[in-house]
Structure formats: C-alpha cells, structure tokens
Amino acid sequence: MARGFYLESRARREYKMTDSTTTVRRPAGFDQLIEAYDGFIFDVWGTLYDGRAAYDGAVAVLRRLADRGKPVAILSNSPQRPEVVAGRLARIGIDDALYQTLVTSGGETHDHLRGRLDRFHADLGPRVFETGPDRFPNLLDDTAFTAVDRIEDADLLLNTGPNEPLETVADYRVLLDHALSRNLPMICANPDLHVYVGHEIQVCAGSLAAEYQSRGGTVRYHGKPHAGVFRTATARLRLPATRCLMVGDNYRTDVRGACALGMGALWLADGIDRDDLLTDRDVDLTKAGDLLRSEGLSGVWVMARLA
C-alpha cells in the first residue's frame, strides 16, 4: 500500500471519530506531504498567487517539489486557455520548469466546443453570445461556433464571467431573463463563485451560472469541482488519483472535487474563505471542521498558506 494512501486513509478515520476541532489534519509542514504523495496538483488563484503577484511560499514549495523530482500539475478554473495562463504564471516567476502540465476550465471548454465531445456539445446551435472580457485566444477560435452581439440571435450563452471586474449578478438579471425566455443552454467556463484580487472580492462566472440554474436554466459546467479536469490532470501525471494531492484554497471546488475522486486534499485557509477560517492569521480548526462536515467532506489536510 502506498504511503500516501495510508496517511490519507488514517486521516479519514480520524475525521469520522473525533469532534470538529480534529476533523482536519494539520501537517507539520509541507515537506510531510511531499513524503506522503507521489504527484501534486495546484490551484492557481488564491493558492499560487493573489491575482497580482505570486506568493513567496508557493514558489518555494514548487521549487522543493522540482528538486525532489515530484511531478506537478497546475489546475485552474480560469476561463482562459492554458497557454494564456502559462504566460501569466511565467510573468510572475512561475515558469514551466516548475510543473509538468497545465489544465484550465477554459481549455476543457474549448476542447469540448471544438471536438463536440459529447451529446450536449454536439447538439448545440452555432451562434454564441459570450459574457466576460475580450480574451485572446478566444474559446471559439478553431471551432464551428460564431459569436453574435445580441442575445436574441444566440443559440448558446457562453459564460466566462462578468464583463467588468466590479459587476455583480444583479447587473446580469435582464440578460439572463432574455436567455431564459428563449430556453438557451449556458456553458459555464469557470464554476468559481468569487475570487479575491488582492484584497478585493469579485464575482466569477459560477455566480451567474448558479443564478441561471436556480431559475430553471440549463447549465453545463467545465472545471472544478467536476471530475473531467481532475481526471485530465492525473492522466497527464500518469498517476492514479489516490497517489495525488490537490492543493487549493476553495473547499467547494478544489477540496470537494479531489475528495470525490479519492485524492488527498490540502485546504489553504488564507484564500477565498479567509474571513471565516483565520484567527490572528492562523487556522481556526473548529470552523474548518464544521465547514467540511457540512459538505460531507473528510480526511482533509489544512494549512494557513504554503510555506
């Protein structure tokens, strides 16, 4: 039995047997986890950088993994294609020598639109109304789909988030009303609800999708916590899920998706849930355990931040 699997299984048993202050495991340091797992998968926003700069501890951890010969995948809910995210990471000091593969929700979206890889995508009409800022390369490039300027002309709503950083779900209710009246399917290219940019929280595509779905709209998601992107990452690392550790700051996406596939999960508290989890910049284990238990999650490692 692999050592990583043993440690994760023991953590799961401790979660079920104890109260909320010990339902999560705090490692002595990240090096303990390097010993326990064979492959590592890292979220980007809130884990490796804050939307503006890389975290010093995160870069140091990636370098230690490279020195130890441990394979690394980057797994991001960015609605952009992998080459765009790779360029951004390189500009903040995380070059491709520090990881073996990069998977994004935007990349998966593009693959499914280009290849029409399942019945949902095969049945879509060709005219697409997009939300979100202009991106290059666009998710419609090299596909049979064409962007339209009016929701009234669309067969599909492609949701990559708000057009402007400070917009909210309320700004899109009229647009969503039009889409609902025409029974348009939506593709959500980023299931995250919110993200911190520096110290400012902004709405993501997942919030628009949740609103649309709550009102009866059809939504197809690409990205965490859904299994496809996790399976792509582990396949590229050539490792079974049980030998990999997912590292991220979002228990709704990073942790939930990892646990569903039997992966190890390290939850970083100084991220999207920092207001609920940190007390004097340290993790409140009681609150962390309560949140995980409310989602039916178990055996989760927790640290404040990478170091």
Short précis:
The chain folds into 2 domains: 3-8 and 20-77 and 225-303, Rossmann fold; 107-221, 3-Layer(aba) Sandwich (Rossmann fold). The protein is 37% helix and 19% strand.
What does the model show?
- This protein has a seven-stranded parallel sheet with strand order 1-16-13-12-2-3-4, sandwiched between helices. The protein has a five-stranded parallel sheet with strand order 6-5-7-8-11, covered by helices on one side.
- Strand 3, helix 4 and strand 4 form a beta-alpha-beta unit.
- It is of the alpha/beta class.
- Helices cover 37% and strands 19% of the residues.
- The chain has two domains: 143 residues, 3-Layer(aba) Sandwich (Rossmann fold); 115 residues, Rossmann fold (3-Layer(aba) Sandwich).
- The N terminus is likely disordered.
- It has twelve helices and 16 strands.
Task: State mean pLDDT (0 to 100 scale).
Answer: 91
* CATH topology heading of the largest domain: Rossmann fold
What is the total tally of β strands?
A: 16
Proportion in helices: 25-40%
Name of the CATH homologous superfamily of the largest domain = HAD superfamily/HAD-like
Low-confidence stretches: 1-22
Listing every helix as H and every strand as E from the N terminus to the C terminus, the arrangement reads HEHEHEHEHHEEEHEEEHEHEHEHEEHE
Sheet with the most strands, sense and barrel status: 7 strands, parallel
Q: What class, by secondary structure content?
A: alpha/beta
> Which CATH first-tier class of the largest domain would you pick?
Alpha Beta
Q: Count the DSSP helices.
A: 12
> How far do the termini sit from each other?
28 Å
Per CATH, the architecture of the largest domain is 3-Layer(aba) Sandwich
Q: Could you tell me the radius of gyration in angstroms?
A: 19 Å
Our count of domains comes out at 2
Question: How much of the residues is beta strand, in percent?
Answer: 15-25%
Q: Which geometry do the CA atoms define?
A: globular
Strand order of the largest sheet: 1-16-13-12-2-3-4
